[in-house]
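Handout, section 4.2: multi-component inputs.
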Amino acid sequence: MLAAHARYTIDCDVLPRFTAAYLRVADGECAFIETHTAHALPRLLGELALRGLCPDDVRWIVVTHAHLDHAAGAGTLLAHCPNATVLAHPRAAVHLIDPTRLIASAKLVYGEARFSELYGVLEPVPQARIRALDDGASFDLGGATLRVHYTAGHAKHHFVVDDPALGTVYTGDAFGLVYPQLQHSGRFALASTSPIDFDPAEARRSLELIVGLGARHACLTHFDSIEDLREVASQVRAWLDRSEAWLEQCLLSDASLEAQTEAVAASYRAELSRYPLSAEDWSLLQTDIALNAQGIAVAAARRRRA
Ligand SMILES: [Zn+2]
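Output:
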């Protein structure tokens, strides 16, 4: 590891150890990777202060994709960091500059009331302060070079950020969900197949790409750094395979989207019941079961229309 290079995990959500952002420090400069929502602003700025840095030192605000638990706070954070530029996938940048569609589609998924509670205000990012990065593009931070790689499957606007100086890859949602609370009986990793872009073949390709980068650490947004990348990849791949089988069942069914979503959720719960999960574990998983089931049913509906 280079001297004066470090990364710190910031616990952003109301729910502890559920959603992370990362502060990457390099020779007096720094970058945030992920922002969570505007609600997380005090925690992000607090981490800077804790590390002896100030908002002027922030050079980059990087978001792995435009889902709101990763990027909704980008505009608000940017307004507090005068020297920062937002870095995003081109498809994500469009939504951050004009978040109207992002807000509308999230309200469809969560409903109006829950939306405000979860995401609060979404400040648009001024076009002059965002840079869309091509696949394979790099950016500098202190003496380090970080590089992005497109990783569709979870979302079409997703990239991961490779950080060889720290042997780390920041994986957003492309390397699954590894909640610390669920790691009591060995490794437990799930895929995230939430609406609206889920594509199992692309998601498997992205998993392979991430493992192929050869990083020692994968920093997941949900949640924190893991080192057993091959084991996590193999569990996530198994969930992608199951999700694909459920998607194919949806393709054969004439039921409504709601009924298909409920059927996939039931299959999901049946599969999960093979694991030693406590009542608290089940309660933690409720949102992901519902979102993953919805994402699979929506993917089938979109494929049928295509
Ligand atoms: Zn996501």
